[in-house]
Amino acid sequence: MTDQGLPEPIPSPIDTEYELGQDNVTGSLGPIGFDVHNPVFAISGLAVVAFVFYTLALPTQAAALFDALFAGVTTRFDWFFLTAANIFVVFCLVLIVSPWGKIRLGGPDATPDFGYVGWFAMLFAAGMGIGLMFYGVSEPLGHFTASFGGVTTGEDGLRTDWAPLGGAEGDAEASMRLGMAATIFHWGLHPWAIYAVVGLALALFSYNKGLPLTIRSAFYPLLGDRVWGWPGHVIDILAVFATLFGLATSLGFGATQANAGLNAVFGLPIGPVSEVLLISGITAIALVSVLRGLEAGVKRLSEINMGLAIILLLFVLLTGPTLALLAGFFDSLGAYFVYLPALSNPVGRTDTNFVQGWTAFYWAWWISWSPFVGMFIARVSRGRTVREFLISVLLIPSLVCVLWMSVFGGAALQQVVADAYTAAQEADLPLQLFKMLDVLPLAGLTSIIGIVLVVVFFVTSSDSGSLVIDTITSGGKVDAPAAQRVFWACFEGAVAIVLLLGGGLAALQSMVISTGLPFTLVLLALCYTIVQGLRSEMDAPAKLA
Description:
Elements: E1 24-29, E2 32-37, H1 40-57, H2 59-97, H3 116-135, H4 138-149, H5 172-187, H6 189-208, H7 220-223, H8 230-266, H9 272-319, H10 322-343, H11 352-379, H12 386-417, H13 423-426, H14 432-438, H15 443-473, H16 482-538
Antiparallel strand pairs: 1-2
Helix pairs in contact: 1-2, 1-8, 1-16, 2-6, 2-11, 2-12, 2-16, 3-8, 3-9, 3-11, 3-12, 3-15, 4-5, 4-12, 5-10, 5-12, 6-11, 6-12, 6-16, 8-9, 8-11, 8-15, 8-16, 9-15, 9-16, 10-12, 11-15, 11-16, 14-15, 15-16
């Protein structure tokens, strides 16, 4: 392998004759240079354009297809998503306590490129940002309401309710515990284990083995030099699809919530036109960050986001029922571990609406995000040991998510149960955060901070996503022309806009499910290749930190 823009020296390189960029097409269009992989860039771009054109040209047919895709995948493969996610959690926990945890990404002399504050900020912003803002209030409320309502069945004897497990009919305290446990289940160990598998595989095979920073590289133990041919092309194209549609879904959620917040605070009309304007404006802001690069762009915005998120969290904690929220954090964490075996059980479930409509969708969404978040985590994690990497990527963000949901969701639940305030519970999903904030002091100011957080999370997701897609479609080059990242940032925004106009959030969710299914197989294979890579590192004691 020749230089690929990664730090040297490579501690234990894989012996391959592949040259970084040997399949790339380079040139310029006027003053704009390009350096793209052939055929990954062309097939990915043209396939997405064809899909977008189909959505606009045949909206009724496309909507029917989206509905069929979502229903078909979630009803037939819910067990597969749950089983795979369980495997990823167990795999990461085993690696943390194994001797392989001593291996350092980049070799024994590698030092971290970023300090802990900047590193955690980027992990948090890239991995969960928009989702935590959108679902932090609404999901605990939704699960509580469904649990409190109990089990209902149709004429066919099948359940029609959305309660997790067996619900807790008429029991407010038990419904709160079950609702919070179900929420934490969707935002805790399982999604972060999905991200950790991809991030660890990319970091190991790039920093320790000297292969390009792209998904196909992690399959070298399975495919050998065939990874540079069509098997590798298919893997990278799948990664582009999964990343693009996963990002588009999150951008759609972010746009609807920002629109709802601006309507509540400033009276901005709610509707597709406003959402299109928001996506366009925020994509334009993201372009500035893209051009500033990783250090001055994504890292700076992530730190701003982290600061604003901490301010808003502390405000809700201190102005809300503080003691109840603090007690709720530990109570919710305990409930999570109590209900975890039942919630993660992939077979014999009767709560089909919850499993298929919530859990299967979430796992497919996280898996769709995994190439993007995993590669981004790998980009910023050189110099960490495997153990440090997994603890920081798996356990610490999970606890942050528990705290966030316990404070925001807990505040909303206390309003319903203790104060009989149901405005947040009855509001549309994107508006529930702002209705919760309405009864706290300085509601106008905190709502504005919430909108800013959604927007900046939006920007960091678009920015880091375009950087990752560009790396994949340029064959693993981390220093491709900036114009390509600009192209992908614009493309992501355009896809989100078209799918929102053509089929709304249902279209976005259907594409997440559809791309998440095949990519789950990719992640399962990565578990095997990671073991092979770590075993080869352990063969030489000098590789240990």
